[in-house]
Amino acid sequence: MKKIFLGLVVCLGLACSDSSQKKVNEVLDETSDSLVAKVDQVGDTLKKVKDDVARKIPKVEINVSKNIPISLQWISFEGNEQGTASVTKKEGGWFVIKGEQNSADQEYLKIDGRLKRLDANHISFEGTIITYIKTNNDGKPCEKTGTQNFYKKGSRSYYRLQNMENCEGGRLLDYVDLYDLDQVL
Q: Is the pTM of this model over 0.90?
């Protein structure tokens, strides 16, 4: 009888421990699911706060401009000084350029557009270049609009416009030069 009673006690003890273990596992599962949900909820809230703060911070663009000398040989060869262009860095490797050179005779070079360095000696320009010399192109301004190329050759310190032909045509050339770009681009 003692053996039977002892066997019953052992069986009841095992049954209780299995049941208790199941309860403990269920509580742990519920608690971990609840904790995971709360951590996810806190993470979502933090992301919303971060996104909201990021939207409220104003975008600041710092434009650093430098002035460079520019010239058209028809004006510079007459003893006048070079003109000046402002070059300002923008996104994507582009720089905005705007400037002019003027003579006492009301002749001029104007440049307005954007530049991008393609390699050590090649600059791409998109925009408008206008030259005006009274004795060229029947006294009308020569306007070049679109993509143009400037190259630096040999030991020169300046970049020269490669589309040199004046609007008059023939053998009339305009040497439009940009100086000190290596210090800016």
A: no
